[in-house]
């Protein structure tokens, strides 16, 4: 099994069943290549997330299309709300009734006026008859005025109801338009998710053509780094393949490991950034003397160029620990990849270096005396840096000071896998994408 898949599987195990790390962490470093189609091959969190993204995009698109179909159907059938429809119909009916009342009261007033005229023209009409006729005219006039006022109010009610009816239809039409835009965006999102999944699956298959091994990676550096300072590590990559290598890259990751099994157990799959956020790494080499920052999750690599058979390449890694970083055990990891002239490629296992992260002493207090290192010293330039002695730190070797004592209960190799697994997957994505370009 390739190291990228090993680390990805390790991360998945860490966030779902942390007991794996507590009981059998070294097993990850000794994993043998499984048979095709085995559960280890299929347990790919990155692939699972891409599949889930496609499924979410499909579900969202389906929902949006269904919503728009319903809106268009409502527009067709004037399903704009029961209250709006009923009020518009009632307002129109009330206006019609008010207009009928106006006509009827106007006719009654005209009849009363005609009767009064006849009474007044009659020489034999009594004053009482004339007064009665005049009273009927006044009453009819009052009813006619009331009918006109009622018609005005009914007309205003009708206009308001009609406006609400039209506004409701406009709102539906706008909703249909917004949904159309959302559907277009959802279609693009689905296409992007499907493309990302397809690319990942194609790239995963392309790794079958790559060779395992061919590079020897080593890291040398200080055993402790004080928060708020930097320290320089040495990276050496040797071509152990039996051929010249056209282009050699080294992917580097760093972070501070959890201080307890409980902290590790509480990590979620997306919490890798919580581990890598306190450190940054820059690199330089003779051919590339300018310090260049590496992204936390390995999207860029240390470019070492071509290496002839048996050749070596060196680079410096300047690791900076944030001022507010917690005390604990830090890890720096490097993995090699290469291309060859005939179009082949290869990769190596990751090499890990562990170091103590210590907090700076308050101003005015003497700094703690550096503990003597064990192992063969290596000449690393620490001018202006915050590290202590420089020794090879490989194979899971840990400093014995500070919070580092808490890590053996978790398993150093497993802890490193938690930190670096996601980064390694990102590196694989970047490297294969670059090769495809």
Helix content: 40-55%
What is the averaged pLDDT score? 74
Number of distinct beta strands: 13
- Give the quaternary arrangement of the chains: single chain
Topology at a glance:
Layout: H1 3-16, H2 19-24, H3 39-42, H4 45-76, H5 82-121, H6 127-206, E1 211-212, E2 215-222, E3 224-226, E4 230-239, E5 245-256, H7 261-265, H8 272-276, E6 279-284, E7 292-294, E8 302-307, E9 312-321, E10 328-339, E11 345-347, E12 351-358, E13 390-392, H9 412-436
Helix pairs in contact: 1-9, 4-6, 5-6
Structure description:
The protein is of the alpha+beta class and 437 residues long. The chain has helices at 3-16, 19-24, 39-42, 45-76, 82-121, 127-206, 261-265, 272-276, 412-436, and strands at residues 211-212, 215-222, 224-226, 230-239, 245-256, 279-284, 292-294, 302-307, 312-321, 328-339, 345-347, 351-358, 390-392. The strands form 2 sheets. Strands 1, 3, 5, 8, 10, 11 and 12 form a 7-stranded mixed beta sheet that branches. The protein has a 6-stranded antiparallel beta sheet with strand order 7-6-9-4-2-13, with no helix packed on it. Strand 10 and strand 11 form a beta hairpin. The longest helix is centred in the middle third of the chain and has 80 residues, at 127-206.
């Amino acid at each position: 099994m390739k190291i990228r898949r090993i680390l990805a599987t390790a991360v998945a195990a860490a966030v779902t069943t942390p007991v794996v790390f507590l009981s059998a962490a070294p097993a990850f470093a000794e994993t043998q290549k499984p048979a095709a189609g085995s559960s280890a091959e299929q347990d790919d969190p990155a692939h699972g997330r891409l599949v889930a993204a496609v499924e979410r995009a499909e579900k969202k698109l389906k929902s949006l299309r269904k919503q728009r179909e319903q809106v268009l159907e409502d527009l067709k059938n004037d399903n704009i709300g029961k209250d709006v429809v009923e009020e518009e119909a009632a307002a129109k009916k009330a206006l019609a009734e008010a207009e009928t009342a106006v006509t009827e009261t106007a006719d009654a007033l005209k009849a009363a006026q005609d009767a009064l005229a006849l009474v007044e023209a009659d020489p034999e009409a009594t004053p009482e008859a004339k007064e009665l006729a005049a009273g009927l005219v006044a009453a009819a006039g009052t009813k006619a005025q009331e009918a006109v006022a009622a018609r005005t109010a009914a007309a205003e009610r009708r206009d308001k109801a009609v406006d609400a009816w039209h506004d409701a239809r406009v709102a539906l039409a706008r909703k249909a338009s917004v949904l159309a835009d959302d559907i277009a965006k959802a279609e693009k999102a689905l296409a992007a998710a499907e493309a990302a999944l397809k690319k990942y699956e194609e790239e995963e298959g392309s790794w079958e053509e790559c060779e395992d091994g061919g590079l020897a990676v080593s890291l040398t550096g200080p055993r402790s780094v004080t928060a708020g300072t930097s320290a320089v590590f040495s990276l050496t990559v040797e071509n152990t393949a039996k051929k010249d290598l056209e282009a050699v890259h080294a992917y580097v990751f760093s972070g501070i490991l959890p201080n307890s099994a409980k902290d590790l157990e509480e990590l979620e799959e997306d919490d890798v950034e919580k581990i890598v956020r306190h450190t940054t790494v820059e690199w330089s080499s003779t051919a590339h003397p300018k310090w260049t920052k590496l992204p936390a999750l390995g999207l860029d690599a240390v470019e070492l160029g071509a290496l002839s058979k048996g050749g070596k390449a060196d680079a410096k890694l300047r690791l900076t620990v944030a001022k507010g970083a917690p005390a604990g055990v830090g890890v720096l990891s490097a993995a090699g990849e290469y291309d060859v002239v005939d179009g082949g490629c290869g990769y190596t296992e990751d090499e890990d270096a562990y170091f103590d992260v210590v907090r700076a002493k308050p101003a005015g207090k003497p700094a703690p005396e550096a503990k003597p290192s064990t192992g063969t010293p290596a000449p690393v330039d620490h001018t202006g840096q915050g590290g202590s002695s420089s020794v090879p730190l490989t194979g899971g070797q840990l400093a014995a000071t500070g919070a580092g004592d808490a890590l053996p209960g978790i398993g150093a190799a497993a802890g490193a896998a938690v930190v670096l697994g996601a980064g390694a997957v990102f590196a694989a994505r970047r490297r294969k994408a670059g090769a495809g370009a």
